[in-house]
Known about the structure:
Blueprint: H1 6-25, E1 37-48, H2 52-58, E2 69-81, E3 84-94, E4 98-100, E5 103-123, E6 126-145, H3 151-156, E7 162-166, E8 169-180, E9 185-195, E10 202-204, E11 207-208, E12 219-229
Antiparallel strand pairs: 1-2, 1-12, 2-3, 3-5, 4-5, 5-6, 6-7, 6-8, 7-10, 8-9, 9-12, 10-11
Amino acid sequence: MGTGRFPGVAVSLSLAVVLGSLAVGQGFAAPAAEAPRAAGHAMLGWSLADAATLNDRLAPFGYPRLSRGLVSLGCGGRIQIGRLIFGGEYHHLFQGEAEAEGYRISLDGAYGFFDLGAVLLRRPGLLVYGLAGIGGGRLSLKMRAERGAAFDDVLADPGRDATLSSYPFLTQLVAAADVRVSKRFFVGLRAGYVFAPGRAEWEMGFENAPSGPDARLTGPTLRVVFGRGSW
């Protein structure tokens, strides 16, 4: 882990502490008679990665530019105590493959967050809230041969496929709104931004791949939420 990531950790932890302190200090804690409320949800969305430096490294080798856009599929849950929200979420990220020089290349990845947030507006059919998250993820460049191969061909050229990955520390800020569509189910929309404060450090398998490009899982996100639970 590069030393550049530690300031991001400190900032994120400080933000979480400040949000929690404000929430309690402003009376966001639940009254004694109000029980905690829980919800779980699935998410479908879109996010951007900072792939400019990666594309600059691919170009001299004849590879096409990769899109910054990634489709995301995720799930998560939350516990709401008064106006204070504790939650967690996980997302898988992927995009279509690009073809070049007998290979297919693509970006994919994943990340997860522990979230702390506060309710901004609560009505029987509407919940508006904000979240700050701390977590980590994976960004991978995948390269694979365009066609299958016979057993002996693989023995002759075992380096047909390769995956280079980085594992960054991440933080996020999210604005969200959920609308109830029935007694138990709701749909929602989340708009946010993911930050990757440290420089990318690449690996292939369990070995370091030094001098890699500084491509990061940082950028805006937009997700549709389908959930069940109460507020």
